Amino acid sequence: MLMPTRPESVSDAATPDATLPDWSAMAGELIQARQTVLPKRLGAPAPDPAQQHAILSAAGAAPDHGQLLPWRFIAVPHPQRDALADVFAQSLRERDASATPEQLEQAREKAHRSPWLLLAVVDAERGDPEVDLLERTLSAGCAVQNLLLMATALGFGSALTSGKALKSEPLRQLFKLGPGEQALCFVSIGTVQSRRKPRARPAVADYVSTLGTTPPDA
């Protein structure tokens, strides 16, 4: 678990102290340790209630212009997975009337894979209308990343999944989404059963440039 005790004040943290953890090294290790582990590779146990609270609390540290809280998470407990499975199958049937029973069953099965399942939702209308949807979505993305990092710190695997069902009316009705709300993604968290080989991270030069200079591939 990569969770050292936080310094008591900003001034304390700003003063070099050999007894304090190496925050940059620990943060870098945690960030690099995060890896997508698909729901089919996750199993029990899920985070316990205290761990779930710690994971969800991490989301509250996300940047939030105007403190609008323009996002929320909806947990999907196991007794509700059949209802979600029905939504996945109905959404597929509406998109593809020729979907086979096997394809519909595959769609349904996806609702039951994750040990702990959350739906991330962004609200385009809550609070100050001057804060546009892009800012709100960025805040939601930061909240999601905080969840993933805390899950990693606690020893769990995690993944984000999406799909066309997120935009379906049956899903909106199941989760009782408001007119200004949009489903962003599902967050799956559980104990890692198997991992794929970690993908190579992009080099900094692949995604950073300096204003006024010519990009290398221009």
CATH topology assignment of one domain: NADH Oxidase
Largest sheet: 5 strands, antiparallel
Strand content: 5-15%
- Give the overall pLDDT as a whole number: 91
Order of helices and strands: HHEHEHHEHEHE
| Helical residue percent band | 25-40%
Structural class by sheet pairing and helices = alpha+beta
| CATH architecture field of one domain | 3-Layer(aba) Sandwich
SSE inventory with pairings:
Blueprint: H1 10-14, H2 23-33, E1 42-43, H3 49-59, E2 71-75, H4 81-95, H5 101-109, E3 116-123, H6 133-153, E4 157-161, H7 169-174, E5 181-192
Antiparallel strand pairs: 1-5, 2-3, 3-5, 4-5
Helix pairs in contact: 3-6, 4-5
Characterize the structure shown:
This protein is of the alpha+beta class. It has a domain at 37-76 and 113-193: NADH Oxidase (3-Layer(aba) Sandwich). The chain is 36% helix and 15% strand. The chain contains seven helices and five strands. Strands 1, 2, 3, 4 and 5 form a five-stranded antiparallel sheet that branches. The termini are far apart.
